[in-house]
Write a structure and sequence with these properties.
This protein has one domain (about 1-275): Nitrilase/N-carbamoyl-D-aminoacid amidohydrolase, CATH 3.60.110. About 25% of the residues lie in helices and about 25% in strands. The chain has 6 helices and 15 strands. Strands 1, 2, 3, 4, 5, 6 and 15 form a 7-stranded mixed β-sheet that branches. Helix 1 runs parallel beside helix 3 (about 65-75). The protein starts with a strand and ends in a 9-residue tail after the last helix. The mean pLDDT is about 95.
Amino acid sequence: MKIAAVQMVSSPDVAENLARARHWMAEAAAQGAKLVALPEYFCLMGLADNDKLKIAEDFGAAAAPIQRLLAETARELGVWLIGGTLPIRAATPDHVRNACCVYNPQGELAARYDKLHLFRFDNGREHYDEGRVLEQGDVPVTVDVTAEGRSWRVGLSVCYDLRFPELYRAMSFTPGQPPCDLIAVPAAFTHTTGEAHWELLLRARAVENQAYVIAPAQGGLHANGRRTWGHSLVIDPWGQVLACHAEGEGLAIAEIDAERLAAVRSQLPALQHRRL
């Protein structure tokens, strides 16, 4: 199955961002992708953190423009769509959930994951705290994606979640379920942390879970002055980088192969050797 990670440099203009996302989703489908993934905050990189509150949507609302675009585009293009993240209203009016919604090729909602781990960073020059406006999620989420006659179990995560390997273990070792075949990590890594840790952590998650990884990212200088690392990646279960888009808008596209996945797990059956 061919999969595509969309890289964006989103702005404070929601309409512009939605149009650019639609463009790149269509381009990915035209190149044969059956699963397309958008980055975190694809719909808005605001001038201030609380700008997310201004565009927050009620979950599942028929008139919600961001959710409607995702559903309609998935249906029109006939693809599975991992919809990056968008702000969904939380229980308190001054917070939102950073939600990743997945749609099937019929445009139906297949899963929703709310980011569990909230990023905070302060090195004396840069500082950021997502907890000021985000409410953390509750549970890990996986979704079964069926394409080209095969089902792929996909584990959902977002950005800072990448630093917590126990989340991926929990998804791959759910009682009664097979391990994840593909891990999705839509992100908006800062340039500082991304340069140091992004590829390192993604390849580690692929190797330790013997799974493919798709990591669509924000990648460039935004209107709010923030610079994101980009380097959207597709990685195989041996840790090999199959595709990378370094900076600016674009796509990282690669084929994921069930036979390759089975061979890695058979030759080095580490998933069977787990004890803790």
